[in-house]
Batch of 2 targets.
Target 1
Amino acid sequence: MLKFLCFLIFLTPLCVFSGFWWLICSLLFFVSFVYMFFFPYFFCWGGLGYIFGCDLISYGLIFLSLWICVLMVLASESVFRLSYFSGFFIFVVIVLTIMLYCTFSSIGLLSFYIFFESSLIPTLFLILGWGYQPERVQAGIYLLFYTLLASLPLLVGILFVYNSLGSLCLFMLCGNSSLVGGLFYVCMIFAFLVSMPMFMVHLWLPSAHVEAPVSGSMILAGVLLKLGGYGLLRVFPVLFKFGFSFGIVWISLSLVGGLFVSLVCMRQTDLKSLIAYSSVAHMSMVIGGIMTLSYWGVCSSFALMVAHGLCSSGLFCLSNITYERFGSRSLLVNKGLINLMPSMAMWWFLLSACNMAAPPSLNLLGEIGLLSSLVSWSWCLMFILVLLSFFSAAYTLYLYSYSQHGSFYSGLYSCSLGYVREFLLLFLHWFPLNLIILKVDVTVFWV
């Protein structure tokens, strides 16, 4: 584990040199591919030290973090081209990668909490430093206040665990059900529900996405939302008995909220806002699957987290590609794009199909598993799950058809059809998303 961490740390001096942008990008690709060959073919912890370790859950999310951070650099070519503090930008991206790597490989609850909160600081720098509108300050404050205030009870809960059990190692807490109490249960999971985010505590996410640059939106949708799901998977072995009692509250709230958010998506005219709200709808199913505490629910939630990280990140890249050309994210301006950018319409279709869980994407595997686990938990959820799946397809088709078809905006004359860098960027989102389903044991058979 330490060799990859040292590699990332030693990349930071290269940020001083302005001409080393593509070298750093190539080295990040290299470390991602090397990490791919360290897949743990066992169902316990490996690479253990006093602080860091890795199992199959950690491996998948660390690899997703490395992959999305490489694509962030590739998508932010305009920062390098305009010399807009490009050295500091790449430094922030590398620091964020290190924080995420340490978060997912921590084997202690306290170190996990520290790195979990520290990953918000580089994200805040991305939003405040390279955001587009002055409202980015308000979006940054929303991000900090929602996540930090919700995390304070988690710190109290971690200290209570240490006081009661004398240990904070994750694999030593499994199966220990001596910690009981409704207040303790809520303290331990509320921070993760805000981070995912769950309906009613999701207001920070659309504003952060709308004001963030493309790199900020990619890392928010691709990895930072998954921190909440990862945290729930880690703390539920301690809260197993209480989870059965309170699961109905969170499942009902998340699924009904996901349905409401799906209806909100149908009324959006901002590209990034629509994709951000669709993330809330998808993560509501992830919350429901984890709260069932069943084998298929937990495994399918993990599969959908990985799939959503790649799919939503690709959709944010597409919205940024049109924004760079037309200077607007409004669907009233970005319509009829198939007339102006026919080659890019194919990528809109492919990623939109993945977003509504069309085969052979990993989203299909995750959603089928979640539907079966939730219906087996309670058949009463069948009606709301049907509506949730229907509106998921409806707002995705609304996004695709409204942006690609119809007459294009009369104020536009021509634009670039697309660069090789952009096609490569979109391919590197779409290809793993459809390739992983050929080896599903990476995402499901690890419990």
Target 2
Amino acid sequence: MSVYTQGIIVDNIHFDIPLVSLKRSADFLDKFAERTEDGDLKRELIGVYYNFTLTVGDSAAFGDSDYNEFWNKMTEPVEFHDFVLPAGTGTYSFRGYISSVSDEYKKILDGEAEFSAFTCKMTAKQPARSPT
């Protein structure tokens, strides 16, 4: 596995993190969708939202970023964050919120903790694509 060198940016703060996975989903959100009596579907599509699930490696593998600083930013009680994530060609920027964050203690030695399996879900505030 190669070392991840791009990092992510959250609210203009760069985090040099050991990326394990960045799962992207395209969620289609309707203003309404209902079936008529004859079985036909009527819907009004608002747009397609690109949402992400980020998984990072052990806290000991963080580059210049401090794991606790990263945890605190990702669990900050604010309505929205500005994200810049790696994309197929360059980066993808969006405004969104974090719906869940989790990690697990890997080991605790002499009062020092090491964490693993950090995962968070990022949900877009606005659609990435809208119908024309």
